[in-house]
Amino acid sequence: MKKLSLLSIALCFSCHTQKIAMAKTSELLKSNIESVCPEDGACTLELQKNKSIAVKTDITGKLYCDLEDHPGTSVIHYVYTRNTDPELQDGQHREEIIFEIDNTVSELDLNNWNLSQTKMIFGRHCFCRGQAGYFVVKQGKLRLQHTKEALRFVLDFTVTEVPQTLTQVKGTFTQ
What we know:
Elements: H1 2-12, E1 18-22, E2 28-33, E3 41-48, E4 51-57, E5 63-69, E6 73-82, E7 93-102, E8 107-111, E9 121-126, E10 133-136, E11 139-146, E12 150-158, E13 168-174
Antiparallel strand pairs: 1-2, 2-13, 3-6, 4-5, 6-7, 7-9, 8-11, 9-10, 11-12, 12-13
Protein backbone atom coordinates (compact mmCIF):
# COMPACT_ATOMS: atom_id res chain seq x y z
CA MET A 1 0.00 0.00 0.00
CA LYS A 2 2.87 2.33 0.86
CA LYS A 3 4.51 1.69 -2.55
CA LEU A 4 1.23 2.40 -4.32
CA SER A 5 0.87 5.72 -2.48
CA LEU A 6 4.43 6.73 -3.39
CA LEU A 7 3.82 5.84 -7.04
CA SER A 8 0.62 7.92 -7.08
CA ILE A 9 2.43 10.92 -5.59
CA ALA A 10 5.27 10.58 -8.11
CA LEU A 11 2.83 10.54 -11.01
CA CYS A 12 1.03 13.62 -9.69
CA PHE A 13 4.26 15.63 -9.66
CA SER A 14 5.36 14.71 -13.17
CA CYS A 15 5.51 17.67 -15.58
CA HIS A 16 4.20 18.06 -19.12
CA THR A 17 7.56 17.49 -20.78
CA GLN A 18 8.40 14.34 -18.87
CA LYS A 19 6.18 11.45 -17.95
CA ILE A 20 6.74 8.06 -16.42
CA ALA A 21 5.21 5.57 -18.80
CA MET A 22 4.26 2.18 -17.46
CA ALA A 23 3.96 -0.64 -19.95
CA LYS A 24 1.51 -3.42 -19.16
CA THR A 25 4.50 -5.64 -18.44
CA SER A 26 4.98 -3.57 -15.22
CA GLU A 27 8.32 -2.32 -16.54
CA LEU A 28 8.94 1.34 -15.77
CA LEU A 29 10.45 3.43 -18.55
CA LYS A 30 11.25 7.13 -18.43
CA SER A 31 10.17 9.10 -21.45
CA ASN A 32 11.42 12.52 -22.41
CA ILE A 33 9.57 14.63 -24.96
CA GLU A 34 12.14 16.72 -26.82
CA SER A 35 9.80 18.32 -29.35
CA VAL A 36 7.82 21.43 -28.52
CA CYS A 37 4.38 20.73 -27.10
CA PRO A 38 1.85 23.41 -28.14
CA GLU A 39 1.50 25.98 -25.34
CA ASP A 40 -2.26 25.55 -25.19
CA GLY A 41 -2.11 21.90 -24.14
CA ALA A 42 -0.29 18.96 -22.62
CA CYS A 43 1.67 16.18 -24.31
CA THR A 44 2.45 12.63 -23.25
CA LEU A 45 4.75 9.98 -24.67
CA GLU A 46 4.49 6.28 -23.97
CA LEU A 47 6.27 3.11 -25.07
CA GLN A 48 4.23 -0.06 -24.77
CA LYS A 49 6.54 -3.06 -24.95
CA ASN A 50 5.50 -6.32 -26.55
CA LYS A 51 2.46 -4.78 -28.23
CA SER A 52 1.38 -4.55 -31.84
CA ILE A 53 -1.04 -2.25 -33.66
CA ALA A 54 -4.03 -3.85 -35.31
CA VAL A 55 -5.42 -1.29 -37.79
CA LYS A 56 -9.08 -2.04 -38.47
CA THR A 57 -12.02 -0.52 -40.32
CA ASP A 58 -15.47 -0.05 -38.79
CA ILE A 59 -18.79 -0.54 -40.59
CA THR A 60 -18.73 3.07 -41.86
CA GLY A 61 -15.31 2.61 -43.45
CA LYS A 62 -13.43 4.65 -40.83
CA LEU A 63 -10.08 3.47 -39.46
CA TYR A 64 -9.46 2.65 -35.81
CA CYS A 65 -6.79 0.68 -34.01
CA ASP A 66 -6.45 -1.81 -31.20
CA LEU A 67 -3.30 -2.83 -29.37
CA GLU A 68 -2.62 -6.54 -29.12
CA ASP A 69 -0.03 -8.54 -27.21
CA HIS A 70 2.87 -9.35 -29.50
CA PRO A 71 6.35 -10.34 -28.34
CA GLY A 72 8.99 -8.75 -30.50
CA THR A 73 7.34 -5.40 -31.23
CA SER A 74 6.58 -2.26 -29.25
CA VAL A 75 4.23 0.66 -29.82
CA ILE A 76 5.16 4.34 -29.44
CA HIS A 77 2.20 6.58 -28.63
CA TYR A 78 2.40 10.39 -28.49
CA VAL A 79 -0.67 12.40 -27.49
CA TYR A 80 -1.35 16.14 -27.53
CA THR A 81 -4.46 17.24 -25.60
CA ARG A 82 -5.55 20.85 -25.92
CA ASN A 83 -6.56 22.63 -22.71
CA THR A 84 -10.26 23.45 -22.90
CA ASP A 85 -12.83 25.28 -20.87
CA PRO A 86 -14.66 22.62 -18.82
CA GLU A 87 -17.86 24.62 -19.37
CA LEU A 88 -17.73 23.82 -23.11
CA GLN A 89 -19.37 20.49 -23.84
CA ASP A 90 -17.82 19.98 -27.29
CA GLY A 91 -14.55 21.88 -26.86
CA GLN A 92 -12.15 18.96 -26.55
CA HIS A 93 -9.35 18.48 -29.08
CA ARG A 94 -6.76 15.69 -29.06
CA GLU A 95 -4.21 14.55 -31.60
CA GLU A 96 -2.09 11.44 -31.46
CA ILE A 97 0.53 9.63 -33.46
CA ILE A 98 0.94 5.88 -33.02
CA PHE A 99 3.51 3.59 -34.61
CA GLU A 100 5.05 0.17 -34.11
CA ILE A 101 8.71 -0.84 -34.09
CA ASP A 102 10.54 -4.14 -34.03
CA ASN A 103 12.26 -4.60 -30.65
CA THR A 104 15.43 -5.90 -32.32
CA VAL A 105 15.93 -2.96 -34.69
CA SER A 106 18.91 -0.77 -33.84
CA GLU A 107 18.31 1.93 -36.44
CA LEU A 108 15.50 3.08 -38.73
CA ASP A 109 15.44 5.75 -41.42
CA LEU A 110 12.09 5.67 -43.21
CA ASN A 111 10.48 8.11 -45.64
CA ASN A 112 6.93 8.54 -46.95
CA TRP A 113 5.38 5.23 -48.06
CA ASN A 114 8.07 3.27 -46.19
CA LEU A 115 6.44 4.54 -42.98
CA SER A 116 3.82 1.83 -43.58
CA GLN A 117 6.39 -0.65 -42.18
CA THR A 118 5.58 0.88 -38.77
CA LYS A 119 1.76 0.85 -39.22
CA MET A 120 1.90 4.59 -38.44
CA ILE A 121 -1.44 6.33 -37.94
CA PHE A 122 -2.47 9.82 -36.93
CA GLY A 123 -5.59 10.41 -34.85
CA ARG A 124 -7.53 13.66 -34.61
CA HIS A 125 -10.36 13.70 -32.09
CA CYS A 126 -12.59 16.74 -31.82
CA PHE A 127 -16.07 18.01 -32.52
CA CYS A 128 -15.13 18.91 -36.08
CA ARG A 129 -17.41 17.14 -38.53
CA GLY A 130 -15.64 15.34 -41.31
CA GLN A 131 -12.23 16.24 -39.92
CA ALA A 132 -11.81 13.71 -37.14
CA GLY A 133 -10.72 10.08 -36.99
CA TYR A 134 -7.63 8.01 -37.72
CA PHE A 135 -5.55 8.40 -40.88
CA VAL A 136 -2.62 6.44 -42.30
CA VAL A 137 0.55 8.56 -42.39
CA LYS A 138 1.94 8.50 -45.94
CA GLN A 139 4.18 11.57 -45.89
CA GLY A 140 7.04 12.09 -43.49
CA LYS A 141 10.39 10.98 -42.19
CA LEU A 142 11.17 8.78 -39.18
CA ARG A 143 14.68 8.43 -37.79
CA LEU A 144 15.12 6.04 -34.85
CA GLN A 145 18.13 4.74 -32.92
CA HIS A 146 17.82 1.97 -30.36
CA THR A 147 20.70 1.10 -28.02
CA LYS A 148 20.83 -0.71 -24.69
CA GLU A 149 20.73 2.66 -22.91
CA ALA A 150 18.02 4.47 -24.88
CA LEU A 151 15.57 4.57 -27.73
CA ARG A 152 15.57 7.91 -29.56
CA PHE A 153 13.39 9.00 -32.44
CA VAL A 154 12.58 12.06 -34.56
CA LEU A 155 9.42 12.11 -36.65
CA ASP A 156 8.33 14.81 -39.09
CA PHE A 157 5.02 14.05 -40.80
CA THR A 158 2.06 15.49 -42.68
CA VAL A 159 -1.46 14.19 -43.09
CA THR A 160 -3.31 15.62 -46.07
CA GLU A 161 -6.84 14.51 -45.13
CA VAL A 162 -7.34 16.83 -42.11
CA PRO A 163 -5.74 19.89 -40.46
CA GLN A 164 -3.13 19.00 -37.87
CA THR A 165 -1.39 20.74 -34.98
CA LEU A 166 1.28 18.04 -34.54
CA THR A 167 3.85 17.89 -37.32
CA GLN A 168 7.02 16.96 -35.43
CA VAL A 169 7.63 14.62 -32.54
CA LYS A 170 11.00 13.94 -30.88
CA GLY A 171 11.45 11.70 -27.91
CA THR A 172 13.74 9.46 -25.90
CA PHE A 173 13.03 6.46 -23.69
CA THR A 174 15.53 5.35 -21.07
CA GLN A 175 15.44 2.62 -18.46
